[in-house]
Amino acid sequence: MRFPTSPKSRIALFSSGIAGLGILAFLLVGPPQLLARSESPAFCASCHVMEEQHTAWSHAGAHRRIRCVDCHLPNGNHLLHYAWKSIDGLKDVVSFHSGMVPERITLSSHGAKVVQRNCIRCHTEAVSQMDTTRQCWGCHRQLRHRLTGVVAAR
Predict the structure, then answer these.
(1) pLDDT tens digits, 73-104
(2) DSSP 64
(3) How many Cβ atoms from other residues are within 10 Å of residue 115's Cβ?
């Protein structure tokens, strides 16, 4: 492939590249209303076969005041947050529309690390004297969407 040499061709190529980047940025970030809506728990439950998890979350005490993305996406770094939101969201859309949603939805190893970091981020003071290498939901089983009740004794 030859690079265009005429000034008009170069301007057209450059303009097309800028327009393409603009469209890509819009699709990745979208208008603010779309972005805000896509971070709501109702949005997560709408296309994701997560009705049972959404219902359990909505009855989960203090945690019902937070959003799915507060636990399930990296926080503190907007670039990572939106990159993983795009990756995970695309995987969810493909799974849902292809009919390949597993019977039992579980966290990936990456997802488990993100959730663990977010538990520690929100509960820093409470866990400051604890071993944070153990997964929080190992003891706090009721925080997994399907289960409710008091903290499990080990």
Answers:
(1) 999 898 899 889 888 888 888 888 888 888 77
(2) G
(3) 19
**For position 152, what pLDDT does the model report?**
38
DSSP secondary structure letter of residue 101? -
Q: Which residue bears the tokens 């009855």? A: 59
Is the C-alpha dihedral spanning 141, 143, 148, 153 positive or negative? positive
SS3 string, 113-152, reads HHHHHHHHHHCHHHHCCCCCCCCHHHHCHHHCCCCCCCCC
**Residue 69 burial by Cβ neighbours in a 10 Å radius (0-12, 13-18, 19+):** buried
Q: What 3-state class would DSSP assign to 34? A: helix
Q: What is the mean pLDDT of residues 15-31?
A: 77
Q: In this structure, what DSSP letter does residue 102 have?
A: -
For the question of whether the overall pTM of this predicted structure is more than 0.90, the answer is: no
